[in-house]
Amino acid sequence: MNRFLPYILTAFVMVGCGQSGHEDHDDHDHEAEAQEAGGHKHGDEIVLTKEQIEAAGIRTDSVCRGAFHGVIRVGGTIEAVPADEQVVVATMNGVLHCTRPMPAPGSAVTQGRTLATISAGHLQEGDPVSRARIDYEAAQREYERAGRLVGENLISQAEYDEVRRRYEQARTAYEALAGQSAQGGVAVKAGMTGYVKQWLAAEGTYVSVGQPIAVITSTRRLRLRADVPMSQAAQMDLVRSARFRPEGSEQVYSLDEMQGRLVAYSRTAAEGDAYVPMVFEMNNVGQLCPGAYADVWLLTHDSHEAMTVPVSAISEEQGLYYVYVQTHDDAFVKHEVSLGLSDGLRIEVTAGLDGNEKVVSRGTSQVRIAGASAAIPEHSHNH
Question: Are the C-beta atoms of residues 17 and 10 closer than 8 Å to each other?
Fold first, then answer.
């Protein structure tokens, strides 16, 4: 039996090697399939294919090191410039009837467009247009008669001048109302092209002459009011410009790109108020809505050396902040960072980077999901 033992052991070794080679081949196939299916990790490295990077819109930006201005972050409000607003008022007493469809707040209107009509036909004083026409016709007849009498020296010049004055008043009143006459009453028209900001009188209510009915705004120029805490009011002399992000928007606007300028600021707060206002004026280059709240970054003249990255590069998890550093064309590593000041577009990194990296500035969430996915298998990545 012993002389056959070497041949038996050799057979067992050959069978074992054949099984091992089959398993390695299967493992390689699984890894290849996983790599074709999506990104993979090797240690802390997140690897994505070129196609995945393009589909997710992932972009990178270099870390910047240099002078960074001082920033005061406050809250604020977008307001219309008073000179670009007009209050539409009632031109007679009566009941207000809005046109159909009624221009809602935010609706565009053109100069001369009828916004509503005022009717007094069912009121005790009657239709003012009819009354004005009757007064005008009576004053005209009296004026023509006085012209004949003064020519015959039957009335004095003073009496004639008084009759003419009454005639001119009646004519002016009638022409003013007749020019606004519309079906169902007197038309109330927009005096400028712009947008309906607010209705001040409701449908079917009684309005008096001169009563405000609506506010029209052109929104060509806007104001940004920043409310600065009293604790930071001493730094207002250093402010040179501002950036802001309207509530509910992801876009950050820069006053420097909107021909903006600082209009004024107060050094004292109103009684019982802990904030002082700082007002900027700017062009409305987007769909900015007066009355909206905004996050405001006040930029000051003082500066310091800093390392910064785009705000969009920052990812937050459970109170900690991270960036994804590009290590290769298709590989990224997650770095925890400490943050300093932000101006709305870039943010200061005080620790966690050395300043020579490239970080993901667009598609951060996609890289984060790829790195956190438990379905992604480990796979070697050699460069």
Answer: no
With b for 16 or more beta-carbon neighbours within 10 A and e for fewer, the 327-345 pattern comes to beebbbbbbebebebbbbe
CB 368 within 8 A of CB 269: no
Q: Per-residue pLDDT tens for 77-116?
A: 999 887 778 899 988 788 888 888 888 887 888 998 888 8
Residue 324 to residue 331: CA distance in whole angstroms: 10
Exposed/middle/buried for residue 88 (C-beta within 10 Å: 0-12, 13-18, 19+): buried
Q: Does the model's pTM come out above 0.85?
A: no
- The partner residues of 334 in beta bridges, in order of sequence, read 324
Average model confidence (pLDDT) across the chain:
81
- Helix ranges (H only) for 179-316 are none
Give the position of tokens 């069912």.
122
- DSSP 3-state of 80: strand
Inter-residue contact 191 to 216 (CB < 8 Å): yes
